[in-house]
Amino acid sequence: MFTTMFDTGLYGRLRQQAGSHWQNYVAHPFIQQLAVGTLDESAFRRYLTQDYLFLIHFARAWALLVYKMRTLPDIRAAAASLEAIVSELPLHISYCADWGLSEAEMAAQPEAMETINYTRYVLDIGQSGDALDLLVALMPCVAGYAEIGLRLLDDPATAMVGNPYARWIANYGDSDYLTGVQSALDLLERTGQQRGAESRFGSLSTIFTTATQLEAAFWQMGLNAPVKP
């Protein structure tokens, strides 16, 4: 299944080093409830709104990564990921509209503290560190969502019929999405080899694990949304 894709190379080592924090992220109660269709719709709408705000900063972080790359092939690879995010935003907005959320409404919402904490952490890593630091901070989101999608699709307990969240689940197991994730993993591996990842593994692990914890907090933010009667 996803084992080969996520268990090897620098990413696999960082993921393993994150330990229980990684499991808290990819198997969070938000995800468990979403998988069986019991997640409260208020929680999901809260998540969708904040995810829209998050993606704007995520695109900024990838744009910063493009700037920090030194070779044309790596600039192209980072730019392709940036373009994928920017191109996907209209689809995200369309999906949110199906849940009664307009772009204007989402844009007008204040950022949750969890959104601020996560996005500003990634941008700060990008500003203060090099391309490898920034790429490591981005990877829990990029590859983590793919792992979550594939886990859920592979789990017979996941409800794909009559589940209002089935389309969301299917999106993160989509072949086009997984191709983009593999490209990001390849870029991480190349950048790690170019920029001495082995000698920096301790600090890179701290960045990766911190971003993982912030991902779990983002799920919890959604789960903590007030339930509407």
From TrEMBL:
Transmembrane segments: none annotated. Signal peptide: none annotated. It comes from the Bacteria. GO terms for cellular component: cytosol. This is Thiaminase. It comes from Winslowiella iniecta. Residues 16-224 form the Thiaminase-2/PQQC domain. It holds the Pfam family TENA_THI-4.
